[in-house]
Structure formats: structure tokens, C-alpha cells
Amino acid sequence: MTLERLVILDVGHGNCAVLHSQGAVCVVDAGPGTTLLEYLVEEGIADVDLVLLSHADQDHIGGLVGLLTSGKVNVKQVFINSDSEKNTKVWKTLVAELGKHWANGTLAFYTSLTAQQPSFKIGNATIDVLGPSPTLVASRTTSAGVHVTANAMSAVLRVSYGGSPVGLLAADMDTVALNDILGRPTPPSLRSPLVVFPHHGGVSGQSATQFTRQLIGAVLPDTIVFSVGRGRFNNPQPDIVQTARSVRPAARVACTQLAKRCATATPKKNPNHLVATFANGRDKRACCAGSLVIELGRRRLTVLPSTRQHFAFIKAHARKAMCT
Amino acid sequence: MRRIEGTKIERVSIIDDDPTNRDGYRLQVEDAELTPVVEAGPFWTLDSCVSQVKSSQAVLSDYKLRVKKFADFNGAELVAALYDKRKPAVLCTRYESMEMEHIRPYRSRIPALLRPDELDGDSFIAALAQCIGEFQDRFVQARKGWRAVIQIEDVRTEPGQSNTVEVSIPSWTSGIVVGLREDEFPADIRPELKEGNRLYAKVNTGAERIEELYFCDWERYA
Asked: Taking the mean position of all CA atoms in its chain, how far away is CA B46?
């Protein structure tokens, strides 16, 4: 496997991506559980240069608490949009742990991650913060009177390699967040060959299909990833998958885990299409695409597992697949 | 005889005080193409039982062994003792909450716990494979222990019994509270057991079910 890579980790319901370039490591969101920690330990990575947390929800930050307390991995810098309304145990524990590491001088943490932030350089890769605007973060409501939620404040990040876009990591962005980006006098381009679809393909209804149409139309991806688990959320929503496919019929749809709507049961035997990278669903045979590896620095962007192998698995194990 | 994770297993000792259950366990072991050895009690000490199963390569034990004075210990204590001897052992229990409270202190040394309705030839072999894997330092995600922050939610006083310390694990599923007996904690940690305090402990935070959780290596939050 190439050392230059963007890994979309299967963390179940949640988000986590790890960018590797020129020996530098950047984590974008830290979904719940031990998957990120397991991955880093399995890959022999003891230092993480940068962690970007899109927003303060548990399914985006839970894994960082475990990472910081484990004593196995050093984290050098953390950026997050502060959320003073957040009163969850995991948020309070994360702030306490970040504070301890900061006080010890082992970590720097910054409580702002907006479009004002200059691009992050990670080896040959860059990460641009496309949203939210500082104006949105500073607002309680939009000009239309809509409440600005934690999801609306999700940092929307675009990863590029060698100057070309690779992936849009959209966290839990919603219509407010999308309009905040596209409504600027000179909106940044959202175009990217891969998108990790916002909010795990959750939230249904007319506004969701409109949002999907608008987002996929702006990104024009070849691969649409839904970072989902087989737990209570039952994502992705069929109308979202259907709308995304109608806007971009040739795009590959890849769920990290086998959606319950696609298959009520998991395979009886270990599948053989998965990449060797750690995945939350691996031990319990819950993976669909599992963790995805985007190999960087090649003439064509390669997303593993390959479409052919992944589709063979879907054909065999997901009778009601929404993606085919 | 079968080779499981590179280890030869032929004879499986069955430990249960109930003759009907023993018969059921015997059939499941045969279903796994292994040879059941029904061990006769009573066992007055844990050591005598561990010694009696020496000629078997694995053990299947029920949790409740004290009820009919079949043994002076429970199945969790037995499986944990066998874990220390690196003998694969599977505990069978109905997961009743009171049982779990007593099993939890031994849980780090009980790799595989099956409900009677889950036990069949395949699940028994998978459980043995998990035990042997741990002896070879290969832990599945749900069993690996990691240092984690523990939040103390409440301390309940119960007359005539050890206090129950209710804890949550923010990096796991923060909405769930686990009850631990105060006497499970090391003496130097007990003064810290107050609502709102935090501690560190090694916990298998990759587990999905509350029944799977174990806690050890307690530390002050400093």
C-alpha cells in the first residue's frame, strides 16, 4: 500500500479520516469507540501532527478522548469550533483532557476552525476549510431567522493532493452550512472526486432531497461514501441515496458498514474484499466497503476496496442494496 | 480431536451442579466434535477443581455452582483461575444483572461468555478460539483493554452490602451507567469514590455490550 493516502475509517456511526503524506499524519474527526486508536496502533503511528474536529457531537469527537487518555499516541495540535452550548459528558471530558495536555505543554489546541483559517499543509497534501464562515459561527440565527445548530457549524474540509482535489469531508453540514458556503460573493469550489456524505446519510424528507441534489450537484463526485453503522440510526436514508444516484448516476456509492436496509443479516463467513486497514465492523462481519483507502500521488485516484470486489460482495450479501 | 488456533483440543470437562444441564452441555460439546468429560463434584476448593480438569484440554462451566453445594466457588472464579493457567474455558450464564455484578470483577479473565441459548457446537469452538487467541496475545476489538477516563455518577449505599459505585465511560457510550461494587476498587482509590470525580482505568472500550466490560488498573485522575 502507498504511504501517501487518505483513509476513511469505518468507525460505525460516526466520522473519521486519516491523511498520511510525507510522514505527517492528520486526523479529521474522531468517531466514537476505539477504531482510530486501534488503527494508529496497528499502523505503528505514535505521533499525530494535527487533529481537526468538525464539531462537538459525540460521533465526531468520542475517539479523541480515548486517544488522549490511552497514552499510546501523542497528539500535537487540535482545532475545533468551540460550542459553548455543548454540555455532554464526552465534550466536557474532551475539554478537560485537552486542557491537561495543553497545561503540560504537550499539545496546542485552538477553538476556531472556520473558512478564515489558512490552508493546512500536510506533506504534499493541503486541507482547506470551506465552511463555516466566521459570520455563521458568530451568529445564533441566520439572516433568515434559522437557528444555527452544531451541525450547521460543522467544519467542511476539502483535501487536495499535489494541487488537485481528492475528497470533501462534509461532517454533519446541513442546508444552513451549504448556503453559507455557496451564498458567498465568491464561493469556494466544492468539486471533489470523493465526498463523505454529511450526517451519515441521515435526515429524510423533501428538504433532505433538495439538499442532496444541491450538494451532489456542486461536488460532482465519482465516489459517495456513507459512514454508517448497523446500530439504531438505520442510515443512509433511501431517499438520500436515490437522489444522490439520480444526480450522479455513474458515481460509486460506498457505505462503510452494511446498512440494515440492504441486508438484515451479516455474512456468516469473513468476507475477502476488504483492505487490510482496521475497520470497526471487521470482527463482527458488519463491513460493506469497510475502511476505504484513497491512494494519493497516482495518475488516477484509486479507491480501495476496488469497485469490482466491493460490488461482488454487495451482490452476494445485500439483496436489497440501495446502491445498485 | 480438533486443532483450534494451532492448539490440540480433545477432552472438554463439563462443570455444572445440575444433571439436566450437564446432559445439555455434553450434547453441545459432542456437536463440536469434541469429547465431553462430565466432572463429578462436589468440589470443596477451587484448586481441587482446577487440578481435576488437568487431563482435559478445555472446560465448559456453568455460572451457578454453589446452589446445590456442588462447589464452594462460582463458574466465573473457576474460568478466571483456568485463564491464569492458560487453559481455555467458556462460561455459560443467563446474563442476569445480579450475576453480571458478581462476574464483572473476573471479566478481564473471561474471554468468552455464552448464554445457554447461544451455546452450540460452532459458538463453542469460536469461544475456545477466542480464549486461545488471547493466550497468544491476540485480542478481538471487544476485548482489548485501553486506559480510559471513568466518571463517577453516584455512590449508592446499601445496608449490609458493599456500596455500589455507578460509573460512566465518556469515550464509550456516555449515556450508560455501570454499577461496580466499592470493594472491587483498590483501597488507595476508594477515598476518590465521590459523585462528580473522575478516575482512570483500563477498560475494554471496544466492547459493544455492557455485559462485556471489564475494569482494572485503576488510577487517580491527576
From this structure: 15
Note whether A142 and A108 are within 8 A (CB). Answer: no
Residues B89-98: tens digit of each pLDDT: 999 988 676 7
Q: Which residues from chain B sit within 8 angstroms of residue A97, using beta carbons?
A: 149
- Which are the contacts of A116, defined by CB distance < 8 A and separation ≥ 6? A129, A133, A134
CB of A37 less than 8 A from some CB of B: yes
pLDDT at residue B97 in the model: 66
Q: Supply the Cα-derived Rg of chain B in whole angstroms.
A: 18
Q: For chain A, how many helices (H) and strands (E)?
A: 8, 17
For the whole model, what pTM was predicted?
A: 0.92
Domains and CATH numbers, chain A: 5-317 (3.60.15.10)
Q: Do B174 and A90 touch (CB under 8 A)?
A: yes
Among all chains, which residue has been given the C-alpha cell 482510530? Answer: A36
Q: How far is A276 from chain B (nearest CA, A)?
A: 15
Pairwise CA distance, residues B57 & B40, whole Å: 17
pLDDT at res. A141: 83
Q: How far is A149 from chain B (nearest CA, A)?
A: 21
Which residue from A minimizes the CA distance to B142? A283
pLDDT confidence tier of residue A238, bands split at 50, 70 and 90: very high
Asked if B170's CB is within 8 angstroms of A70's CB, the reply is no
Q: Does A96 touch chain B (CB under 8 A)?
A: yes
CA A305 to CA A316: how far, in whole Å? 16
Complex prediction ipTM: 0.88
Positive or negative: CA dihedral A196, A87, B179, A34: positive
Phi, psi at A127, each rounded to 5°: -125, 120
Task: Give residue-wise pLDDT tens across range A195-222.
Answer: 999 999 998 666 889 999 999 999 999 9
Which of B138, B166, B171 to substitute to test the interface with A, most A CBs within 10 Å? B171
CA distances from B105 to B100, B152, B215, B217 (A): 9, 18, 8, 12
Residues of A in contact with B144 (CB under 8 A): 34, 38
